[in-house]
Design a protein that fits this description.
Length: 223
């Protein structure tokens, strides 16, 4: 359709977006004192075609650094936030990962570019089905898709080395902390609308939990 980028145009826009994200991180930091993203995160962002994970009417905006609507009152997160959340997971191949809030599947794809054992939960069935179709068409295999209440996690596949929550709860559900493995990391937005903070929770080898507030965010509520 006229007015929309072709594949080469999307690739150029993707690279420009990644440079923008890297520049913002270099200037403002990651929230923990670092000023550079994990190289594995940057590599994953370069491999994921964000335009495939947004509605057709939003494709021309796929590489603008802000959230976009995906229907059902939900959004695809700002690329900068996707990058930072993934960075704080310190994700590596072999990690067993739980994602709460599949959404369009974009964050799922970024996770799957680094780790190879992903379970993702979405409470809105049409979104879950659309994300699964998109991810499979993009060649992502072996992802476990669950339609259900993300607050309950997925105990049948626990514990998880890494947990990422892509919608905000007033408080972090205890079930998710219980499903985090020893030496695990959990990243989640916490707080009411207008007063949310991105939180990093770590669990050491003995099971002791440490929480760290990173920076303010704005997410749709965890439903």
């Amino acid at each position: 359709m006229a007015g929309r980028p072709d594949e080469d145009g999307f690739a150029r826009a993707r690279e420009a977006l990644i440079r923008e994200v890297e520049a913002q991180v270099e200037r403002y930091g990651t929230g923990d004192g670092a000023h550079a993203l994990d190289p594995a995160v940057c590599a994953a962002l370069r491999r994921v075609a964000r335009e495939k994970f947004v509605p057709d009417l939003e494709r021309a905006e796929a590489y603008v650094n802000h959230p976009l609507p995906i229907g059902h009152g939900q959004t695809i997160s700002q690329p900068l936030i996707v990058a930072l959340m993934t960075h704080h997971l310190q994700l590596r191949p072999g990690h067993h990962v739980l994602e709460i809030g599949t959404g369009s599947g974009y964050q799922t794809a970024v996770l799957a570019e680094i780790a190879d054992d992903i379970t993702t939960i979405e409470t809105i069935k049409p979104l879950a089905e659309a994300a699964r179709t998109t991810l499979e068409h993009q060649g992502y295999e072996g992802i476990r898709f669950i339609v259900g209440d993300g607050r309950a996690g997925a105990p049948e596949n626990a514990p998880y080395d890494r947990i990422i929550v892509t919608a905000a709860a007033a408080t972090l559900p205890a079930t998710l902390i219980e499903q985090l493995a020893a030496n695990g990391r959990l990243v989640a937005p916490i707080g009411e609308s207008g007063a949310q903070q991105l939180m990093l929770l770590t669990k050491d080898g003995s099971g002791e939990v440490t929480r760290r507030t990173l920076f303010p965010v704005a997410f749709v509520p965890l439903t």
